Amino acid sequence: MHDFLTDPRFAGIEKFEGKVWLSSPTMHGDEQKWVDDAILTNWVSTVGQNINEVEKGIASYLGISYVVGLSAGTAALHLAVRLAGEKLYGIPQAHHGVLEGRKVFCSDMTFDATVNPVAYEDGEAVFIDTEPDTWNMDPVSLEKAFEIYPDVKLIVLAHLYGTPGKMEEIRRIADAHGALIVEDAAESLGAKYKLDGKWVETGTLGQYSCISFNGNKIITGSAGGMFLTNSKEDADKVRKWSTQSREPAAWYQHEELGYNYRMSNIVAGVVRGQLPYLDEHISQKRKIWERYERGLAGLPVKMNPWDREKSIPNFWLSCLTIDPEAMEYVERGDLDEHWTSEAGKSCPGEILGALAAFNAEGRPIWKPMHMQPIYRSHDFITRAGLASKDGVMTSDTGSDIFRRGLCLPSDNKMTEEQQDRIIEIIKRCFG
Ligand SMILES: Cc1ncc(COP(=O)(O)O)c(C=O)c1O
Protein backbone atom coordinates (compact mmCIF):
# COMPACT_ATOMS: atom_id res chain seq x y z
CA MET A 1 0.00 0.00 0.00
CA HIS A 2 1.37 3.38 -1.00
CA ASP A 3 1.78 5.83 1.92
CA PHE A 4 0.41 9.06 0.48
CA LEU A 5 0.79 11.01 3.74
CA THR A 6 4.60 10.72 3.64
CA ASP A 7 4.91 10.97 -0.16
CA PRO A 8 6.86 14.23 -0.86
CA ARG A 9 4.46 15.05 -3.74
CA PHE A 10 1.78 15.82 -1.13
CA ALA A 11 3.98 17.85 1.25
CA GLY A 12 2.12 20.66 3.00
CA ILE A 13 -1.39 19.25 2.43
CA GLU A 14 -3.33 18.66 5.60
CA LYS A 15 -5.57 15.69 6.20
CA PHE A 16 -9.28 16.58 6.51
CA GLU A 17 -10.39 16.48 10.12
CA GLY A 18 -13.91 15.32 9.30
CA LYS A 19 -14.47 13.05 6.33
CA VAL A 20 -15.48 14.64 3.04
CA TRP A 21 -18.11 12.29 1.65
CA LEU A 22 -18.96 11.23 -1.88
CA SER A 23 -22.61 12.19 -1.37
CA SER A 24 -24.19 12.04 2.07
CA PRO A 25 -27.65 13.01 3.32
CA THR A 26 -28.25 16.73 3.94
CA MET A 27 -31.00 17.32 6.50
CA HIS A 28 -32.72 20.69 6.91
CA GLY A 29 -34.91 20.29 10.00
CA ASP A 30 -38.40 19.79 8.58
CA GLU A 31 -37.67 16.09 8.19
CA GLN A 32 -37.81 15.80 11.99
CA LYS A 33 -41.11 17.68 12.08
CA TRP A 34 -42.84 15.32 9.64
CA VAL A 35 -41.40 12.18 11.25
CA ASP A 36 -42.59 13.47 14.65
CA ASP A 37 -45.96 14.26 13.13
CA ALA A 38 -46.30 10.65 11.96
CA ILE A 39 -45.40 9.34 15.40
CA LEU A 40 -47.52 11.80 17.37
CA THR A 41 -50.58 11.11 15.22
CA ASN A 42 -49.89 7.35 15.34
CA TRP A 43 -49.62 6.98 11.56
CA VAL A 44 -46.61 4.67 11.89
CA SER A 45 -47.39 2.40 9.01
CA THR A 46 -47.47 2.21 5.23
CA VAL A 47 -50.39 4.63 5.08
CA GLY A 48 -50.49 8.25 6.20
CA GLN A 49 -50.38 11.91 5.28
CA ASN A 50 -46.64 12.01 4.63
CA ILE A 51 -47.00 9.39 1.89
CA ASN A 52 -49.95 11.26 0.34
CA GLU A 53 -48.04 14.53 0.40
CA VAL A 54 -44.80 13.23 -1.13
CA GLU A 55 -46.71 11.40 -3.87
CA LYS A 56 -48.51 14.67 -4.68
CA GLY A 57 -45.31 16.71 -4.39
CA ILE A 58 -43.30 14.51 -6.75
CA ALA A 59 -46.18 14.28 -9.26
CA SER A 60 -46.39 18.05 -9.37
CA TYR A 61 -42.59 18.61 -9.51
CA LEU A 62 -42.12 16.13 -12.35
CA GLY A 63 -45.35 16.86 -14.20
CA ILE A 64 -46.49 13.25 -14.13
CA SER A 65 -50.00 12.04 -13.36
CA TYR A 66 -49.49 9.08 -11.01
CA VAL A 67 -46.88 8.35 -8.37
CA VAL A 68 -46.69 5.34 -6.04
CA GLY A 69 -44.42 5.57 -2.98
CA LEU A 70 -42.45 2.35 -2.43
CA SER A 71 -39.85 0.96 -0.05
CA ALA A 72 -36.92 1.43 -2.46
CA GLY A 73 -35.98 2.37 -5.99
CA THR A 74 -35.20 -1.30 -6.52
CA ALA A 75 -38.78 -2.23 -5.57
CA ALA A 76 -40.07 0.38 -8.03
CA LEU A 77 -37.86 -1.05 -10.78
CA HIS A 78 -39.03 -4.58 -10.01
CA LEU A 79 -42.70 -3.67 -10.26
CA ALA A 80 -42.08 -1.54 -13.38
CA VAL A 81 -40.31 -4.45 -15.07
CA ARG A 82 -43.01 -6.90 -14.02
CA LEU A 83 -45.74 -4.59 -15.28
CA ALA A 84 -43.99 -4.04 -18.62
CA GLY A 85 -43.53 -7.82 -18.87
CA GLU A 86 -47.25 -8.48 -18.29
CA LYS A 87 -48.20 -5.86 -20.89
CA LEU A 88 -45.91 -7.46 -23.44
CA TYR A 89 -46.19 -11.15 -22.72
CA GLY A 90 -49.28 -11.68 -20.55
CA ILE A 91 -49.64 -13.08 -17.05
CA PRO A 92 -47.05 -15.82 -16.39
CA GLN A 93 -47.81 -19.28 -15.07
CA ALA A 94 -47.44 -19.72 -11.33
CA HIS A 95 -43.78 -19.99 -10.23
CA HIS A 96 -42.51 -18.47 -13.47
CA GLY A 97 -41.17 -14.96 -14.00
CA VAL A 98 -42.96 -12.83 -16.54
CA LEU A 99 -39.79 -12.46 -18.64
CA GLU A 100 -38.92 -16.15 -18.79
CA GLY A 101 -37.21 -16.90 -22.10
CA ARG A 102 -37.18 -13.21 -23.06
CA LYS A 103 -34.26 -10.91 -23.77
CA VAL A 104 -34.28 -7.32 -22.48
CA PHE A 105 -31.96 -4.54 -23.68
CA CYS A 106 -30.34 -2.90 -20.63
CA SER A 107 -27.94 -0.09 -19.81
CA ASP A 108 -24.47 -1.54 -19.33
CA MET A 109 -22.79 1.16 -17.25
CA THR A 110 -25.10 1.51 -14.28
CA PHE A 111 -25.67 0.26 -10.75
CA ASP A 112 -26.80 -3.37 -10.77
CA ALA A 113 -30.19 -2.45 -9.22
CA THR A 114 -31.19 -1.14 -12.68
CA VAL A 115 -30.89 -4.54 -14.30
CA ASN A 116 -31.40 -7.09 -11.51
CA PRO A 117 -35.23 -6.94 -11.77
CA VAL A 118 -34.93 -8.49 -15.24
CA ALA A 119 -33.33 -11.51 -13.54
CA TYR A 120 -35.93 -11.47 -10.72
CA GLU A 121 -38.50 -12.04 -13.49
CA ASP A 122 -36.43 -14.78 -15.17
CA GLY A 123 -35.49 -12.60 -18.15
CA GLU A 124 -32.09 -12.32 -19.81
CA ALA A 125 -30.45 -8.90 -19.80
CA VAL A 126 -28.57 -8.06 -23.01
CA PHE A 127 -26.23 -5.18 -22.28
CA ILE A 128 -25.96 -2.21 -24.63
CA ASP A 129 -22.70 -0.27 -24.76
CA THR A 130 -22.33 3.28 -23.48
CA GLU A 131 -21.89 6.41 -25.63
CA PRO A 132 -19.10 8.87 -24.80
CA ASP A 133 -21.24 12.07 -24.90
CA THR A 134 -23.38 11.48 -21.77
CA TRP A 135 -22.11 8.07 -20.54
CA ASN A 136 -25.51 6.46 -21.06
CA MET A 137 -27.07 3.83 -23.35
CA ASP A 138 -25.71 4.29 -26.86
CA PRO A 139 -28.52 4.64 -29.44
CA VAL A 140 -26.23 3.37 -32.22
CA SER A 141 -25.47 0.18 -30.29
CA LEU A 142 -29.18 -0.12 -29.43
CA GLU A 143 -30.09 0.03 -33.12
CA LYS A 144 -27.47 -2.67 -33.73
CA ALA A 145 -29.04 -4.75 -30.96
CA PHE A 146 -32.43 -4.61 -32.68
CA GLU A 147 -30.78 -5.77 -35.92
CA ILE A 148 -29.45 -8.81 -34.05
CA TYR A 149 -32.55 -9.46 -31.90
CA PRO A 150 -35.53 -7.85 -33.66
CA ASP A 151 -38.06 -9.52 -31.36
CA VAL A 152 -36.96 -7.73 -28.17
CA LYS A 153 -39.73 -5.52 -26.76
CA LEU A 154 -38.33 -4.08 -23.54
CA ILE A 155 -35.57 -1.56 -22.81
CA VAL A 156 -34.38 -0.78 -19.27
CA LEU A 157 -32.14 2.26 -19.04
CA ALA A 158 -30.66 4.64 -16.48
CA HIS A 159 -29.40 8.25 -16.49
CA LEU A 160 -25.96 7.79 -14.97
CA TYR A 161 -24.79 10.18 -12.24
CA GLY A 162 -27.75 12.48 -12.92
CA THR A 163 -26.95 13.13 -16.59
CA PRO A 164 -29.83 12.47 -19.00
CA GLY A 165 -29.13 10.02 -21.80
CA LYS A 166 -29.98 10.46 -25.50
CA MET A 167 -33.68 9.91 -24.96
CA GLU A 168 -34.99 11.42 -28.19
CA GLU A 169 -33.01 8.93 -30.26
CA ILE A 170 -33.73 6.03 -27.92
CA ARG A 171 -37.47 6.71 -27.82
CA ARG A 172 -37.53 6.89 -31.62
CA ILE A 173 -35.78 3.51 -31.87
CA ALA A 174 -38.07 2.00 -29.21
CA ASP A 175 -41.20 3.26 -31.01
CA ALA A 176 -39.97 1.93 -34.35
CA HIS A 177 -39.63 -1.54 -32.79
CA GLY A 178 -42.77 -1.39 -30.63
CA ALA A 179 -40.65 -1.65 -27.47
CA LEU A 180 -41.49 -0.30 -24.01
CA ILE A 181 -39.02 1.70 -21.91
CA VAL A 182 -38.52 1.33 -18.16
CA GLU A 183 -36.63 4.44 -17.11
CA ASP A 184 -34.40 4.33 -14.05
CA ALA A 185 -34.16 7.95 -12.86
CA ALA A 186 -32.83 6.91 -9.43
CA GLU A 187 -29.75 9.11 -9.79
CA SER A 188 -31.28 11.88 -11.90
CA LEU A 189 -34.24 13.29 -9.95
CA GLY A 190 -34.60 16.94 -11.01
CA ALA A 191 -32.54 16.56 -14.21
CA LYS A 192 -34.22 18.02 -17.29
CA TYR A 193 -34.27 16.93 -20.91
CA LYS A 194 -35.39 18.70 -24.08
CA LEU A 195 -37.70 16.25 -25.83
CA ASP A 196 -38.92 17.35 -29.27
CA GLY A 197 -38.18 20.96 -28.32
CA LYS A 198 -39.93 20.85 -24.93
CA TRP A 199 -38.20 20.67 -21.54
CA VAL A 200 -39.36 17.70 -19.44
CA GLU A 201 -38.07 15.94 -16.34
CA THR A 202 -36.22 12.64 -16.23
CA GLY A 203 -38.67 10.24 -14.61
CA THR A 204 -41.26 11.07 -17.28
CA LEU A 205 -39.41 9.63 -20.25
CA GLY A 206 -40.33 5.96 -20.08
CA GLN A 207 -43.68 4.17 -20.14
CA TYR A 208 -42.76 3.40 -16.53
CA SER A 209 -40.19 5.32 -14.53
CA CYS A 210 -38.56 4.99 -11.13
CA ILE A 211 -36.79 7.23 -8.63
CA SER A 212 -34.89 6.49 -5.42
CA PHE A 213 -34.57 8.16 -2.02
CA ASN A 214 -31.60 6.04 -0.93
CA GLY A 215 -29.31 7.83 1.54
CA ASN A 216 -26.77 8.93 -1.08
CA LYS A 217 -29.28 10.41 -3.55
CA ILE A 218 -29.92 14.09 -4.33
CA ILE A 219 -32.72 14.06 -1.75
CA THR A 220 -33.29 11.15 0.60
CA GLY A 221 -35.81 9.47 2.86
CA SER A 222 -33.07 7.27 4.38
CA ALA A 223 -34.57 4.75 1.94
CA GLY A 224 -37.59 4.66 -0.33
CA GLY A 225 -38.41 4.96 -3.99
CA MET A 226 -41.26 5.73 -6.34
CA PHE A 227 -42.98 4.30 -9.39
CA LEU A 228 -44.11 6.94 -11.91
CA THR A 229 -46.56 6.69 -14.78
CA ASN A 230 -49.26 8.56 -16.67
CA SER A 231 -51.60 5.54 -16.54
CA LYS A 232 -54.04 5.36 -13.63
CA GLU A 233 -54.70 1.70 -14.26
CA ASP A 234 -50.97 0.88 -14.08
CA ALA A 235 -50.45 2.98 -10.96
CA ASP A 236 -53.39 1.19 -9.28
CA LYS A 237 -51.91 -2.18 -10.21
CA VAL A 238 -48.50 -1.30 -8.77
CA ARG A 239 -50.08 0.05 -5.57
CA LYS A 240 -51.99 -3.22 -5.22
CA TRP A 241 -48.96 -5.43 -5.92
CA SER A 242 -46.91 -3.41 -3.42
CA THR A 243 -49.37 -4.18 -0.62
CA GLN A 244 -49.46 -7.98 -1.08
CA SER A 245 -52.00 -7.92 -3.91
CA ARG A 246 -55.02 -7.95 -1.62
CA GLU A 247 -58.39 -8.21 -3.35
CA PRO A 248 -61.29 -6.09 -2.07
CA ALA A 249 -62.75 -8.76 0.22
CA ALA A 250 -63.35 -8.74 3.98
CA TRP A 251 -60.66 -11.42 4.39
CA TYR A 252 -57.20 -11.75 2.84
CA GLN A 253 -57.99 -12.72 -0.71
CA HIS A 254 -55.25 -13.08 -3.34
CA GLU A 255 -55.51 -13.63 -7.08
CA GLU A 256 -52.02 -12.37 -7.94
CA LEU A 257 -48.52 -12.57 -6.53
CA GLY A 258 -47.91 -9.72 -4.11
CA TYR A 259 -45.02 -7.90 -2.43
CA ASN A 260 -44.46 -5.88 0.71
CA TYR A 261 -42.99 -2.92 -1.16
CA ARG A 262 -45.04 0.08 0.05
CA MET A 263 -43.32 3.18 1.41
CA SER A 264 -43.39 3.75 5.17
CA ASN A 265 -45.03 6.94 6.46
CA ILE A 266 -41.88 7.57 8.55
CA VAL A 267 -39.62 7.37 5.50
CA ALA A 268 -42.12 9.59 3.66
CA GLY A 269 -41.79 12.14 6.49
CA VAL A 270 -38.07 12.46 5.76
CA VAL A 271 -38.75 12.81 2.02
CA ARG A 272 -41.45 15.41 2.76
CA GLY A 273 -38.92 17.51 4.65
CA GLN A 274 -36.37 17.16 1.81
CA LEU A 275 -38.56 17.89 -1.18
CA PRO A 276 -38.56 21.70 -0.82
CA TYR A 277 -34.74 21.58 -0.98
CA LEU A 278 -34.37 19.56 -4.20
CA ASP A 279 -33.60 22.60 -6.36
CA GLU A 280 -31.16 23.96 -3.78
CA HIS A 281 -29.29 20.63 -3.71
CA ILE A 282 -29.13 20.61 -7.51
CA SER A 283 -27.67 24.10 -7.65
CA GLN A 284 -25.08 23.21 -4.97
CA LYS A 285 -24.11 20.09 -6.92
CA ARG A 286 -23.83 22.10 -10.13
CA LYS A 287 -21.49 24.58 -8.45
CA ILE A 288 -19.35 21.66 -7.28
CA TRP A 289 -19.15 20.24 -10.83
CA GLU A 290 -18.25 23.67 -12.23
CA ARG A 291 -15.60 24.32 -9.56
CA TYR A 292 -13.97 20.98 -10.40
CA GLU A 293 -14.06 21.82 -14.10
CA ARG A 294 -12.31 25.17 -13.48
CA GLY A 295 -9.92 23.80 -10.87
CA LEU A 296 -8.81 20.81 -12.92
CA ALA A 297 -8.33 22.78 -16.16
CA GLY A 298 -4.78 22.28 -17.41
CA LEU A 299 -4.60 18.69 -16.14
CA PRO A 300 -4.90 15.81 -18.63
CA VAL A 301 -8.45 15.00 -17.42
CA LYS A 302 -12.06 15.58 -18.56
CA MET A 303 -15.15 16.03 -16.45
CA ASN A 304 -18.18 13.75 -17.00
CA PRO A 305 -19.85 15.15 -20.13
CA TRP A 306 -23.43 16.24 -20.79
CA ASP A 307 -25.42 17.56 -23.72
CA ARG A 308 -25.65 21.32 -23.09
CA GLU A 309 -28.35 21.87 -25.71
CA LYS A 310 -30.67 19.06 -24.77
CA SER A 311 -30.16 18.47 -21.07
CA ILE A 312 -29.65 19.99 -17.65
CA PRO A 313 -28.24 17.30 -15.34
CA ASN A 314 -28.85 17.35 -11.58
CA PHE A 315 -25.04 17.00 -11.22
CA TRP A 316 -25.51 14.32 -8.53
CA LEU A 317 -21.91 13.11 -8.86
CA SER A 318 -18.95 14.94 -10.37
CA CYS A 319 -16.62 12.54 -12.19
CA LEU A 320 -13.51 12.70 -14.29
CA THR A 321 -11.65 10.57 -16.78
CA ILE A 322 -7.90 10.70 -17.26
CA ASP A 323 -6.75 11.27 -20.85
CA PRO A 324 -5.40 8.01 -22.34
CA GLU A 325 -1.84 9.31 -22.74
CA ALA A 326 -1.73 10.38 -19.06
CA MET A 327 -2.78 6.98 -17.67
CA GLU A 328 -0.27 5.06 -15.61
CA TYR A 329 0.08 1.34 -16.22
CA VAL A 330 -2.69 -0.41 -14.26
CA GLU A 331 -3.53 -4.06 -13.74
CA ARG A 332 -7.03 -4.70 -12.43
CA GLY A 333 -8.29 -8.02 -11.19
CA ASP A 334 -11.81 -8.78 -10.02
CA LEU A 335 -11.11 -7.61 -6.47
CA ASP A 336 -7.88 -5.63 -6.53
CA GLU A 337 -5.62 -3.50 -8.67
CA HIS A 338 -1.97 -2.51 -9.00
CA TRP A 339 -0.48 0.51 -10.70
CA THR A 340 2.99 1.82 -11.35
CA SER A 341 3.64 5.48 -10.46
CA GLU A 342 4.93 7.58 -13.35
CA ALA A 343 5.81 11.28 -13.38
CA GLY A 344 3.16 13.42 -15.12
CA LYS A 345 0.66 10.55 -15.13
CA SER A 346 -1.87 9.07 -12.74
CA CYS A 347 -4.74 6.57 -12.57
CA PRO A 348 -8.09 6.28 -10.78
CA GLY A 349 -6.67 3.94 -8.12
CA GLU A 350 -3.90 6.39 -7.27
CA ILE A 351 -6.24 9.40 -7.06
CA LEU A 352 -8.79 7.48 -4.98
CA GLY A 353 -6.00 6.21 -2.71
CA ALA A 354 -4.64 9.74 -2.22
CA LEU A 355 -8.13 11.14 -1.50
CA ALA A 356 -8.80 8.36 1.00
CA ALA A 357 -5.45 8.99 2.74
CA PHE A 358 -6.47 12.62 3.24
CA ASN A 359 -9.93 11.54 4.45
CA ALA A 360 -12.03 12.22 1.38
CA GLU A 361 -14.31 9.70 -0.29
CA GLY A 362 -14.31 9.12 -4.03
CA ARG A 363 -15.35 5.98 -5.87
CA PRO A 364 -14.46 4.12 -9.06
CA ILE A 365 -16.88 4.52 -11.97
CA TRP A 366 -19.70 1.95 -11.68
CA LYS A 367 -18.19 -1.18 -13.20
CA PRO A 368 -20.10 -2.05 -16.39
CA MET A 369 -22.54 -4.94 -16.12
CA HIS A 370 -20.94 -6.96 -18.95
CA MET A 371 -17.74 -7.06 -16.85
CA GLN A 372 -19.50 -8.27 -13.69
CA PRO A 373 -18.98 -11.94 -12.81
CA ILE A 374 -22.74 -12.37 -12.35
CA TYR A 375 -23.49 -11.09 -15.89
CA ARG A 376 -20.33 -11.91 -17.84
CA SER A 377 -21.96 -14.72 -19.79
CA HIS A 378 -24.69 -12.38 -21.10
CA ASP A 379 -24.68 -10.83 -24.55
CA PHE A 380 -23.08 -7.40 -24.83
CA ILE A 381 -23.70 -5.28 -27.90
CA THR A 382 -21.47 -2.44 -29.14
CA ARG A 383 -21.54 -0.41 -32.35
CA ALA A 384 -19.53 -3.22 -33.92
CA GLY A 385 -22.19 -5.79 -33.03
CA LEU A 386 -22.21 -8.68 -30.59
CA ALA A 387 -19.03 -8.51 -28.48
CA SER A 388 -17.14 -11.56 -27.39
CA LYS A 389 -18.27 -12.91 -24.03
CA ASP A 390 -16.59 -13.51 -20.67
CA GLY A 391 -15.53 -9.89 -20.18
CA VAL A 392 -12.46 -10.18 -22.40
CA MET A 393 -13.55 -7.48 -24.85
CA THR A 394 -11.91 -4.19 -23.90
CA SER A 395 -12.50 -1.89 -26.87
CA ASP A 396 -15.98 -0.83 -25.78
CA THR A 397 -16.78 2.62 -24.42
CA GLY A 398 -18.05 1.48 -21.00
CA SER A 399 -14.96 -0.44 -19.97
CA ASP A 400 -12.77 2.43 -21.20
CA ILE A 401 -14.61 4.94 -18.98
CA PHE A 402 -14.41 2.46 -16.11
CA ARG A 403 -10.65 2.05 -16.63
CA ARG A 404 -9.86 5.77 -16.84
CA GLY A 405 -12.60 7.30 -14.68
CA LEU A 406 -13.58 7.98 -11.09
CA CYS A 407 -16.31 9.70 -9.07
CA LEU A 408 -15.08 12.70 -7.08
CA PRO A 409 -16.21 13.78 -3.61
CA SER A 410 -19.52 15.50 -4.49
CA ASP A 411 -21.13 16.16 -1.14
CA ASN A 412 -23.20 19.34 -1.14
CA LYS A 413 -21.91 20.19 2.35
CA MET A 414 -18.31 20.25 1.09
CA THR A 415 -16.86 23.76 1.52
CA GLU A 416 -14.99 25.60 -1.22
CA GLU A 417 -11.80 25.28 0.85
CA GLN A 418 -12.28 21.53 1.10
CA GLN A 419 -12.94 21.22 -2.60
CA ASP A 420 -9.87 23.30 -3.43
CA ARG A 421 -7.79 20.97 -1.26
CA ILE A 422 -9.22 17.97 -3.12
CA ILE A 423 -8.35 19.62 -6.43
CA GLU A 424 -4.80 20.22 -5.14
CA ILE A 425 -4.47 16.55 -4.13
CA ILE A 426 -5.54 15.49 -7.63
CA LYS A 427 -3.03 17.89 -9.20
CA ARG A 428 -0.22 16.47 -7.07
CA CYS A 429 -1.11 12.94 -8.23
CA PHE A 430 0.09 14.05 -11.68
CA GLY A 431 3.31 15.48 -10.21
C1 LIG B 1 -29.07 3.82 -11.05
C2 LIG B 1 -29.68 3.27 -9.80
N1 LIG B 1 -30.76 2.46 -9.92
C3 LIG B 1 -31.37 1.95 -8.85
C4 LIG B 1 -30.91 2.20 -7.58
C5 LIG B 1 -31.60 1.53 -6.45
O1 LIG B 1 -32.30 2.38 -5.64
P1 LIG B 1 -32.58 1.94 -4.12
O2 LIG B 1 -31.29 1.96 -3.40
O3 LIG B 1 -33.53 2.99 -3.65
O4 LIG B 1 -33.19 0.58 -4.15
C6 LIG B 1 -29.79 3.02 -7.41
C7 LIG B 1 -29.19 3.37 -6.10
O5 LIG B 1 -29.32 2.98 -5.06
C8 LIG B 1 -29.16 3.55 -8.54
O6 LIG B 1 -28.07 4.33 -8.42
Describe the protein.
With 431 residues, the protein is of the alpha/beta class. The protein has 2 domains: 8-25 and 278-429, Aspartate Aminotransferase, domain 1; 30-276, Type I PLP-dependent aspartate aminotransferase-like (Major domain) (Aspartate Aminotransferase, domain 2), CATH 3.40.640.10. It contains 12 helices and 18 strands. It has helices at residues 30-40, 49-62, 73-89, 116-120, 139-148, 167-176, 232-242, 265-274, 278-295, 348-357, 397-404, 416-429; strands at residues 66-70, 103-107, 124-128, 154-158, 180-184, 192-195, 198-201, 208-212, 225-229, 301-303, 311-312, 319-322, 329-332, 337-340, 363-364, 380-382, 385-386, 405-407. A 9-stranded mixed sheet has the order 1-9-8-5-4-2-3-16-17, sandwiched between helices. A 4-stranded antiparallel sheet has the order 10-12-18-15. A 3-stranded antiparallel sheet has the order 7-6-11, with no helix packed on it. Helix 6 (167-176) links the parallel strand 4 and strand 5 (180-184). Helix 10 crosses helix 12. The radius of gyration is 22 Å and the shape is globular. The chain starts with 29 loop residues before the first helix and ends with a helix. It binds pyridoxal-5'-phosphate (PLP). The site of pyridoxal-5'-phosphate has 14 residues, from helix 3.
